[in-house]
Amino acid sequence: MSTSGVTEYTKTIQRTWTRKRLHISIDLAGEQGNIINTYTTSDRIDGTAAIAADEDVDFDVTFEGIYRVYNERTGPPHTDRRVGASKTFLKLRHPLSTNAYPTSRRFQKGEKFIFPFSFVVPDHMDAPFCMFNSDETHIQLPPTLKGGKLTGADGSLSDDFTPTVCEVVYAIQVRVVQTTTNRTLKTQSQHVRLIPPTPST
């Protein structure tokens, strides 16, 4: 193996080991087992995130809405024939007070920190996301669509009558970045269900 090959192999092992030593957990207020929390517009999403790392890291916590579309391509049956694309249409960043959190949102090696977060679900997408001139209903947040599956009140999966070629997902996301390289070390997501109110007719 060449010197460059050994170096890259070593870096891969280091990245894998770093991810194993990095722990992220997200807890939402009102969680009940495996049941996904449900919200509507103007609701508050409260919770806490815990991060523990063996090196100096930065972090960020966001509430995001993402849509994904898939298509089938021809190919051998034993391969993954689905191709897809995704776009983030909503991204809210939790504001961090310099008095309550480590300087510049940075954790020191060996430190475990638990911090609260809170988001208010908006009633529409950000204006720059859509360039069309249309009424307000055009920029309202879409409901959660999870590939034809819906988690019921008892945690069981049932058909939500949506096609499997499209998804709309909402999640709290915590991203941890290596301080020296600004490289993402690990990302942890906690999905939530969003059901916007139906406009009155």
Automatic annotation (TrEMBL):
Alphabetized InterPro entries for the sequence: Arrestin-like_C (IPR014752)
Source domain of life: Eukaryota
Name the record gives this protein: Arrestin-like N-terminal domain-containing protein
Provenance organism: Aspergillus homomorphus (strain CBS 101889)
